[in-house]
Amino acid sequence: MPMRRARVILMIAVAAAVCGGVPARAADVTEVPEGVNTEAVKAFRAGLALHRDKKYAAAIPLYERAVALGGRFPEAFNNLAYCYRKIGQIDKAIDLYRTALALRPTFPQAHDYIARAYLAKGDRVMALRHLEIVRRLDGRLAHCLEEAIRRGDPDYNDMPWGS
Amino acid sequence: MTAPPRVGDIGLLGLRLALAAVFGVHGYLKILGGHFDRTVALFMTVNIPAPEIMAWVVGIMEFGGSILLVTGLWTRPMTALLAVEMAVALARVRWAQGFLGAAEFEVVLLAACLALTTAGAGKFSLDASLRGGSVRRHRARS
Asked: How far apart are CA A68 and CA A44, in angstroms?
């Protein structure tokens, strides 16, 4: 009986691993990150709500506030960059992604997004460079990014909230 | 007032063991504990040349260094190397992240490494035993 249960659990785990779909990319904050004040997190969450409704321009001032108040808050820089990218301000987005990566160099989503921003600018070399880094950090995310680069389409499979 | 030499040696032993624990765990994680790819990704992000080779070098240096720190063998050169590593980590990664909760850890490790580089391993070490042996041989010859 325990063997059977273990087999069922194993099968569920394998199915979940294979059919996990698009990797979760939301730079969501469920807990207050260390060193980030609660006001910054409040602003971040308010921005996130608008961001999820694809109201990118409206989310920007809230993320700006989160960044200003939060100090070391890579999720806020990453999401702020995402919003700027979506409204077409690619250079500004790249600067902000760089800040997010300076704060957390192994942030897979920021590498994925900055690669897409470079791709939008036509800089395939930098996009591939960040793809190499994403490959080391998150195989499934790398697969999605690789396909976007292959198609030359930065928005391909660019679903930030996994929905 | 200075501490008696014996107490100072106990302090150096404690410092060596503490550093060995920190570097040993981090080195093990880098080369055997599943953090290798993460380390390579970090090195690629901050433009460390030959990131894969450097990840091996740093991992082996930290893990091997921890064993040398426990035994007290080649303490000065080993801690000098680890100090250089910490200086690079500070300059390339941690300084940009601020002091509290980020650079402070590497600053303490750098200071501890430099303390051992300058003071040596102390009496309770293979370095001291080997030095004692060579002094005895030198005296016996002359």
From this structure: 11
Give residue B52's Cα distance to chain centre: 21
**How far is A70 from A76, CA to CA, in rounded Å?**
8
CATH for the A23-151 domain, from 3.40.190.290, 3.40.50.300, 3.30.110.40, 1.25.40.10: 1.25.40.10
Q: The dihedral of CA B62, B66, B72, B73: what is its sign?
A: negative
DSSP A79-147: HHHHHHHHTT-HHHHHHHHHHHHHH-TT-HHHHHHHHHHHHHHT-HHHHHHHHHHHHHH-HHHHHHHHH
Measured between beta carbons, the chain A residues lying within 8 angstroms of B45 are 101, 105-106, 111, 133
pLDDT tens-digit readout, A44-66: 999 999 999 999 999 999 999 99
DSSP 8-state secondary structure symbol assigned to residue B92: I
Domain boundaries, chain B: 8-135
pTM score, whole prediction: 0.83
Contact between chains at A136 and B96 (C-beta distance less than 8 A): no
List, for residues B73-122, the tens digit of each pLDDT value. Answer: 999 999 999 999 999 999 999 999 989 889 999 999 999 999 999 999 99
Q: Are A141 and A25 in contact (CB under 8 A)?
A: yes
Query: Beta strands of chain B (E only): which ranges?
Result: none
**Would you call B104 an interface residue with chain A, using a CB distance cutoff of 8 Å?**
no
- ipTM value of the model? 0.83
* Tokens at A95, concatenated: 């600067």
Residue B25 CA to residue B35 CA, distance in Å, equals 11
Q: How many CB pairs under 8 A join A and B?
A: 38
**pLDDT value for A68:** 94
